[in-house]
Write a structure and sequence with these properties.
CATH superfamily: NAD(P)-binding Rossmann-like Domain
Strand content: 15-25%
Structural class: alpha/beta
Number of helices: 8
Shape: globular
Number of strands: 15
Radius of gyration: 20 Å
Distance between the termini: 51 Å
CATH class: Alpha Beta
Order of helices and strands: EHEEEHEEHEEHEEEHEEHEEHH
CATH topology: Rossmann fold
Strand order of the largest sheet: 3-2-1-4-5-7-12
Largest sheet: 7 strands, parallel
């Protein structure tokens, strides 16, 4: 009689996504589909996908964080409500401090926290190549506050991994497409841009959770970017051709700290395969969808 061998069951985990917005919801869907128990923390938790267990709370208000689930992992994916320093500090420094204190106070410290930061922590603006070993010397308040949030987590004593994401685009994030279509997009002169599709943000975070759960080494910092830093003008010309509109002729100087080329070699070394390796595949999926 031939013995039937079944593959060993995949390990499952409990994951709390703190600040469960667009990226967090997509991450939660992927984690739930892989068999993990997922909680989504946000102020209006009723809007979450049905596969995510809702947890209504406000990271800026410690009193609302009194009933956190004991989870193996926390993914801190909060986003600032506005683009000003006070809002950034509430989301990326105060919120991190409040959550860490609540986890410790409830004896619910996870085995690792993943924190979504930004490539804004790099102030390089002359087209330099940047990776995880490059000096982080932010040119903007957003980068400075995010770096402070990273340090708050790093000094918490909880194992942590920071994923510094580039410009996120994808479903519902069509500002550049809309600007090109309407003729409002200016073309920044010789300005490199970096981006990552929403689905690859979520996919890479899920990949890191799976790696840690399997006992594989996870680095402290990753750049979350696609394969090709591209000049803004090139992206706009490509979009204009796809949309059948004229590309804008106006040029402007790139904003401070936004002219660099980010490498994703460390991301790719984990074995993660980008679904949208360049802006062409990603924007084509949006335009054709």
């Amino acid at each position: 009689m031939v013995e039937t061998r079944f593959p060993p069951p995949r390990p499952s985990a409990g994951v709390l996504i703190a600040g469960c917005g667009d990226v967090g919801s997509e991450l939660g869907r992927r984690l739930a589909a892989a068999g993990h128990a997922v909680w989504g923390l946000r102020r209006r938790a009723r809007d979450l996908p049905s596969c995510i267990r809702p947890l209504a709370a406000d990271l800026a208000d410690p009193a609302t964080l009194a009933a956190l689930p004991a989870c193996d992992y926390v993914v801190y994916a909060a986003a600032a409500e506005r683009h000003d320093e006070a809002a950034y500090r509430r989301s990326y420094v105060d919120g991190v401090s409040h959550l860490i204190a609540a986890l410790r106070g409830q004896d619910a410290v996870p085995r690792r926290v993943f924190f979504t930061s930004s490539t804004a922590v790099y102030g390089q603006d002359r087209g330099e190549w940047v990776d995880e070993t490059s000096p982080a010397e932010p040119a903007s308040f957003s980068g400075r506050v995010l770096l402070e949030g990273e340090e708050t987590l790093r000094t918490s004593g909880i194992p942590a991994t920071v994923v510094r994401l580039a410009g996120i685009y994808g479903p519902g994030r069509t500002r550049l497409i809309d600007e090109v279509r309407s003729g409002r997009a200016g073309r920044a002169a010789a300005s490199y841009t970096n981006r990552i599709h929403r689905d690859d943000c979520a996919g890479f975070l899920a990949h890191l959770v799976a790696m840690d759960l399997a006992g594989e080494a996870v680095e402290e910092v990753y750049l979350g970017v696609d394969d090709e830093p591209a000049e803004r003008g090139e992206v706009i010309r490509w979009l204009a051709a796809r949309l059948g509109v004229a590309a804008p002729a106006a040029e402007a100087a790139p904003p401070a700290g936004r002219n660099k080329r980010c490498r994703n070699a460390r991301l790719k070394a984990t074995g993660y395969r980008l679904r949208f390796p360049t802006f062409r595949e990603g924007y084509a999926a949006i335009l054709d969808g």
